[in-house]
Amino acid sequence: MIVAMVLLAAGVMSLATANASTTTLQTLAQNRTNAIALARGYVEQIRSRDPWMLQSESPVHLDADGTVSSTGAYVRTVTVTTVRQNLVRVEVKMDFPRSTQPLTLTTMVFRGNGLNQAS
User: Fold this and answer.
1) 96: Cβ–Cβ under 8 A, 6 or more apart, which residues?
2) What is the mean pLDDT of the chain?
């Protein structure tokens, strides 16, 4: 009887550990999914701006809905690097809860020739 109880306890402990690991991984996956959605949305906002006015941005805290919040768990940083005179690289980095490294989305934005076509 005691052997059966020990084996049952070991089995229940294994199940509890597996359940805790599953919950942790599900939370990480949800946080990563939210970070990807926030970063993609912001990349689209950036691409709709005047390409000549793009510039790097300091870190901003966001909540899961993408609203700026001083207590937000997500941190967005934008880095704009000039590759050529008319081409810039835009990197949107998102730090998110339980992550070991930030998520980075990169896009290239063509600036055109910078001449006013109306004249």
Assistant:
1) 31, 32, 34, 35, 73, 74, 75, 102, 103
2) 91
